[in-house]
Amino acid sequence: MRRRNPYCTEQPGRYPVTPELLALADQAVAHLWNERRAERDLPPAEDRSGSCKFAALLARELFGGRIAGNLEHVFVLREGEVLDLNRHQRDVAELGSSAHQVCDYTLSHRQYIFSLSTCEPRVMRWVSWVDEQLNTLQHDQSPAAACA
Question: SS3 for 32?
Fold first, then answer.
């Protein structure tokens, strides 16, 4: 059964897309993915193949946009442009140009929506981690911090 997927609705982001913030988001996904691997008794991995749902949900929360994708991969569409925190991962590279094809029908299935919702608590913990990292950076760069 198909129904409207709330993740496919455009939402505003918390932060602008900058190289520095993209790097911080990449760090968050790496931590998040290795945390999940540890829970499954798997060793840490440099490659994040298979983590696209987490990466897309994190990117959407941080930078805005909507979840888009196909049977093989999900990512964010933001202002008509692809934002994919997993763009350099092996599984995305293997998909080639088909990685960013959009098939909203796939994402509207009840089971898929449920699967995305189960990722939310972990993603929101890592959104908080990004917020904390940014607050620390801003505090460390403030004039008051320089005088301390």
Answer: helix
pTM of structure: 0.88
d(CA 13, CA 10): 10
Q: Quick one: CA torsion of 136, 131, 76, 87, rounded to 10 degrees?
A: 40
The string of pLDDT tens digits covering residues 2-41 is 556 788 889 999 999 999 999 999 999 999 899 999 999 9
pLDDT tens-place string over residues 71-125:
899 999 999 999 999 999 999 999 999 999 998 887 888 888 899 999 999 999 9
Chain mean position to CA 122? 11
Other C-beta atoms within 10 Å of 15: how many?
17
CB 14 within 8 A of CB 61: yes
d(CA 23, CA 74): 19
DSSP H/E element including 74: strand 74-78
Cα 68 to Cα 78: distance, rounded to the nearest angstrom: 10
Burial label, 18 (beta-carbon count in 10 A; 0-12, 13-18, 19+):
exposed
